[in-house]
Amino acid sequence: MSDPILSIEQLTIDLPAGADRPHAVEEVSFDLNKGEVLCVVGESGSGKSMTANALMGLLPDGVTVGNGRAVFDGTDVLTLSEVQKQALRGARIGMIFQEPMTALNPLMRIGDQISEVFAAHNLYSKSERRARALALVKEVGLPDPEKIIRAYPFQLSGGQRQRAMIAMALALEPEILIADEPTTALDVTTQAQILRLILALRDKHGMAVMFITHDFGVVAEIADRVIVMRHGRIVEAGVAKRVLEAPQHEYTRALLDAIPTGTVPDLATVNTAPALEIQHLNKIYRTGGGPFRAAREVRAVNDVSLTIAKGEVLGLVGESGSGKSTLGRAVVRLVTPDSGKVLIGGVDLAALDERELRKQRHRVQMVFQDPYASLNPRHRIVRSLSDGPIAKGVPKRQAHKRALELLEIVGLGADAATRFPHEFSGGQRQRIGIARALAMDPELIIADEAVSALDVSIQAQVLELLADLRRKMGLSILFITHDLRVAAQVCDRIAVMQHGRLVEVGPVREVFHAPKEAYTRELLAAVPGAGWAVDKEDAIA
Amino acid sequence: MSFWKRFATNRGAVIGLIILLAVVTIAILAPVIYPGGPWKMVQRPFLVPFTNEALPLGTDTLGRNVAAGLVHGARVSLLVGLVSTVMALLIGVPLGALAGFYGGYVDEGAMRFTEFFQTIPNFALAIVLVAILQPTLGSITLAIAIVSWPPVARLVRAEVMSLKRREFVEAAHLAGLSNIRILVSEVLPNAVSPIIVMASLMVATAILLESSLSFLGLGDPNIMSWGYMIGAARTVIRSAWWLSFFPGLAILLTVLALNLIGEGLNDAFNPHLKKGRT
Lengths: 541, 278
What we know:
- Chain A: GO terms for molecular function: ATP binding; ATP hydrolysis activity.
- The structure holds 2 protein chains of 2 kinds.
- Chain A is of the alpha/beta class.
- Helix content of chain A is 38%, strand content 25%.
- In chain A, helix 17 links the parallel strand 17 (444-448) and strand 18.
- Chain A is globular.
- Chain B has one domain (3-38, 63-274): Orthogonal Bundle (MetI-like fold), CATH 1.10.3720.10.
- Chain B contains 12 helices and no strands.
- The A-B interface holds A 18, 61-62, 332, 334, 358-359, 361-362, 364-366, 368-370, 373-379, 384, 387-388, 391-392, 433, 436, 440 and B 1, 166-168, 170-178, 181, 185-186, 189-190, 275-276.
């Protein structure tokens, strides 16, 4: 053990009265050593971010440190005055956040934002600040540094913004870098780059990194030591290898088991009758433009042809902006494609007019991403489930009866029917969303990132439910996701999209083990903890 | 926390509600309190308030009871405020909802029409309308409604535009519901809170507008209202202060109460906005 640079002792953070539990964090103790990457892992609400915010003195109103010490360089940072904390923040403890777009000031050039860190600590002259900002931008690997420091945040991509944030955090060479889910909002390939950057900077500057994440893949990738938190308590701590390979606590085991592994299911017998046929589908988005200026064109879906057999689950993967969501929405006609056919049960949905379309809508249904936005907050569950069938012509009584049955099927119980959406958790709402899609007896279900907003253990349950329903009801599903591990678990075939084009389609086993295209290989290599997952799979096999 | 509890944490709002309830009660009971009506001459003119127990607020230039005027005026003020607000909502909500929901040419058309009204100063338009239509209670209410609906349309349009992109609205489209049905049963119920808040403030504005019109002599000559009382007393403001003071106080209290309630409703509907404020 090297010398701890920060040691937290018996930290307890109190929540305001009336919260769901009295303490956000309870009696948490750990050390952060010089030059190590400590991963704090937990599901949402486990108190992992609160711990970091307490160190930075950034707790929300009403939340206070109840007890405990956080000793950094001989002083307890929790007892410092606001002015002393300001001197500490940035200079000796740096922090990067999850969403780089909201963490950067949208009206300030990148260079000025970095210079401002120096200005806040009264360091250097104006020209020196500029020179240092430029050096930092170079160090974090941003292309064309001269141009970048004069760019505004909106002109950068997500990964570039996160690099700029890291440059700001590193400006004063802090001894500790706190990273709060810095890669969660990024694509896998970008995430892999940022993780590599953080590791390289750690090696170069010898700083300690406290890395907060919910993703064990990321942990496997970068952690030296791991702390697993649940309900504000540490349930397990130890060296990364030990925690990942031989977890002691059952919660850690449950979390690790819940992670979709690269284990590829055997091919289901594929029916040849198609549930969905997409033929040469195109969708172009045009923005801006006017009488004197050409509009900016984005080919969101570029000549895509695809079939899904009856009873098949096809995974559609790709990075953000690859057009996978647009394709899904074009299939259900939430987006009207520019050309091409979407044949479902012999009907071309893309060609119908509004009235005809309304009658055919029931053939394909969608499960949405955000469990909090996908249910009308003012309607009882039974109404959300039966409005569609009633509009289709099912008698009211029968529609209600079916709604109750479906709630049983998705594991909620019929008493859920009379309640409102806000009474349910995210995972339960997603079950309701699935029940709503099933209520229309669709020939095809589109699941658009249906489990992406859920914690891993909940995610596993919802995936289990989908697999179960599929076995029982022979559902055909187009499963859109950015998470290759999830796709591997539930799908029969995988389709990879990039820049609106279909890059590769094939059975899961082929795509994962013998990818034909370079882009697919790149995607697979970027999955965090890829090597570790393979090890685990071998261990099982 | 229940809606009422959240509302009650704002002390100003509760005070506002108490004042408003008092005004409403007085307005309802007006014929019982002063069965003779506000126009009857009961004493010598210019009776100073607090000198005669039967006439606590004194008498006006013609010897009419000021207290009776106030009580009956409350009926008119509240009625005009309420009815004109309902009318403004009936114009503004459907127009804004259609504009926001359908977008495109519908939106362009509706918003240009709205802007046409917004470019003319409210009060000037109200005066012109009342002057053309003859000053009656109905025409005054209509004029107030016509000048006060544009902000409602704008608000509803903005709400609907943000709500229609929510996933539950898309789910309703997928369920095959008709556009009108989606607008009425999925979108609008979720836009109700800001509309209610705005309506409570509009009642206050309408009362002020009615008073201003009456003050200028454009009120219904057959109806006793607070604004009319102040307008009639303006020539004697130096010798008989109470004639304009008491109706003025009544307007102030009622409008203040409505504003406090609006504020309280806003806090109660949007609890997350209140965090950090005590």
